[in-house]
Amino acid sequence: MFKVDIEKCIGCGLCVKDCFVKDIVLEDGKADIKNLRCFKCGHCIAICPVNAVSTDEYNMEDVIEYEKNQFSIDPDTFLNFIKFERTIRQFKEKDVEEDKILKIIEAGRFTQTASNAQNVNYVVVKKEIQEVRKLTLESLKTLGEHVLENSTNPLYKKYAKMWIKMHEDFILNPLGVDNLFFKAPVLIIVTSEHPLNAGLASANMKLMVDALGLGTVFSGFFTRACENNLKIKEFLGIEKNQNIVTCMVVGYPNVKYSRTVPRKAPNILWK
Fold it and tell me: Could you say which architecture CATH assigns to the domain 2-62?
């Protein structure tokens, strides 16, 4: 429940004005949260100038007082940070520390979700990464064989042959060339009933990965292998109603880039 400390409340009405679902009213000069339509977004906590609002449903230790120098990022520097992002497929033989993994997930946890559902979940794979690789390659092999038998699309057939070859290479030498997870030490799999929520969380997680000096590749091969394959979900303990939205292959980069790259001009419609 969200509640107001009436001893602190000064009746400014800022929380009333900012409440999207109109669940807060002023009564006798004090804010009163009805907790009827509230979806626990926390705007009332964030906007109160005297810190009079709290909740017993979340950990209030998560709340940080705003200080401009601690919260502001120069826009041009931030844009350059984004432009310098690269997909990493070369990793050092070095483990990723748990505190860094948790910080990446924290970036996902605090990403906005539709209706404040907070329905994004995370699976961290370290010890079982070879078994996950095995299951994924088996699934891709089956999919590749189906594509070769039923598709005439040259791009699909190209990928199909690649998947079959990757599986063959794994069977011959499981510790050899790895074109699936690139011998990275950790996977972070992001799931949700709501794919957009998981996608937005993953985008912020990618920014944190780079800020921590790590690198990642989003494994589309893995997410493709998981489609209609309950075996992988069951092994990972992912519920059937969860969509596997992204698989972040994370590690320390074993490559150094010296500049950004060009991109297509944006397609913008001004109305």
Answer: 2-Layer Sandwich (3.30)
Are the CB atoms for 155 and 135 separated by under 8 Å? no
Show me where the domains of the chain are located: 2-62, 73-271
Question: CB-hemisphere CA count at 13 Å for 63?
Answer: 18
| Residue pair 247/223 in contact by the 8 Å Cβ criterion | yes
CATH class of 73-271: alpha beta
First vs last C-alpha separation in the chain: 43
Residue 228: pLDDT band (50, 70, 90) is confident
Give the integer Cα–Cα distance in Å for 187 and 21.
38
Burial of 202 (0-12, 13-18, 19+ CB in 10 A): buried
Break the chain down into helix, strand, coil percent, rounded to 5.
40, 15, 45
CA of residue 186 relative to chain centroid, distance: 15
The pTM score is 0.95
Residue written as token pair 């100038």:
49
Q: Edge-to-edge, what's the strand order for the sheet holding 120-125? A: 120-125, 186-192, 243-251, 215-218
